[in-house]
């Protein structure tokens, strides 16, 4: 916090959680600790990069005013995440009842003899906040992490990771491999039995076809012999 005679400014560093191609905003709070009307004006070394709302205004006696500074979306990240941009906040005591329309640049001109209070503000780039870690599904009731309150009233949180121990995964993998191996062996044995039964059926089929052929030949020869004998008997 910067504490001047007219305004207290918080914070004195503009911290932007830098992200490419995204507008980022941060706020300033101006506190008037006097019994007078105080006018302010915000300037920057890079006006095309930032938008300040309001960039001029009046802080009533014993009251506060919020100023929003928005950085335009950037296409490239700065080298080493360093920023040389700066802001200057000027404040001056004005007559009671002054309105926004009555604020002029001349009020903040030191050369004209006005008592202008100035505060320089730095710009810092910080890492954006990380999203919270996802909560694992299927956790049993009562096993979720709980907050414990210490003696001084601060909450201390503990996280359980037992559900993700590698021993459980390796045991499950060994069981699956054993089960797959057993199923494979059973399939091979069943395939061998089917092959043996198929060979046996083929052999029986060959035997049956061979026996039918011999029986047919015997019948044919007996018939041929009978016809021959009948023919010879007729000739005699």
Report what the structure shows.
Pfam families: Motile_Sperm (PF00635). Residues 6-126 form the MSP domain. Belongs to the VAMP-associated protein (VAP) (TC 9.B.17) family. It is a single-pass type IV membrane protein. It is built from one helix and twelve strands. It has 236 residues and is of the alpha+beta class. The chain has a five-stranded antiparallel sheet with strand order 1-2-4-8-6, with no helix packed on it. Strands 3-10-9-5-7 form a five-stranded mixed sheet, with no helix packed on it. The protein has a two-stranded antiparallel sheet with strand order 11-12. The radius of gyration is 49 Å and the shape is rod-shaped. The model is unreliable at 140-168 (pLDDT under 50).
Could you give the order of strands across the largest sheet? 1-2-4-8-6
Q: Using the alpha-carbon principal axes, give the shape.
A: rod-shaped
Question: How would you state the average pLDDT, rounded?
Answer: 78
Helices, by number, come to: 1
Helix content: 25-40%
- Structural class category: alpha+beta
Number of strands: 12
Span between termini: 149 Å
Strand/helix succession? EEEEEEEEEEEEH
Enumerate the spans where pLDDT stays under 50 for 5 or more consecutive residues. Answer: 140-168
> How much strand?
25-35%
Rg, Å, rounded: 49 Å
Specify the biggest β-sheet: 5 strands, antiparallel
């Amino acid at each position: 916090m910067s504490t001047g005679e007219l305004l207290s400014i918080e914070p004195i560093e503009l911290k932007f959680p830098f992200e490419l191609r995204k507008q980022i905003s941060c706020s300033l709070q101006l506190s008037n600790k006097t019994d007078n009307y105080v006018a302010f004006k915000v300037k920057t070394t890079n006006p095309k990069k930032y938008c300040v709302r309001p960039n001029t205004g009046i802080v009533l006696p014993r009251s506060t005013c919020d100023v929003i500074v928005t950085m335009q979306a950037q296409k490239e990240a700065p080298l080493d995440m360093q920023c040389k941009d700066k802001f200057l906040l000027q404040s001056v005591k004005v007559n009671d009842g002054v309105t926004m329309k009555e604020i002029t640049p001349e009020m903040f001109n030191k050369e004209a003899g006005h008592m202008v209070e100035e505060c320089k503000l730095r710009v810092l780039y910080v890492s954006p906040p990380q999203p919270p870690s996802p909560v694992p599904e299927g956790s049993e009731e009562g096993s979720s992490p709980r907050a414990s309150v210490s003696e001084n009233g601060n909450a201390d949180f503990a996280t359980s990771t037992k559900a993700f121990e590698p021993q459980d995964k390796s045991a499950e993998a060994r069981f699956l491999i054993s089960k797959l191996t057993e199923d494979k062996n059973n399939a091979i044995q069943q395939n061998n039995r089917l092959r043996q039964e198929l060979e046996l059926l083929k052999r029986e089929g060959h035997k049956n076809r061979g026996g039918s052929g011999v029986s047919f030949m015997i019948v044919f020869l007996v018939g041929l012999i009978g016809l021959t004998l009948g023919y010879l008997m007729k000739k005699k």
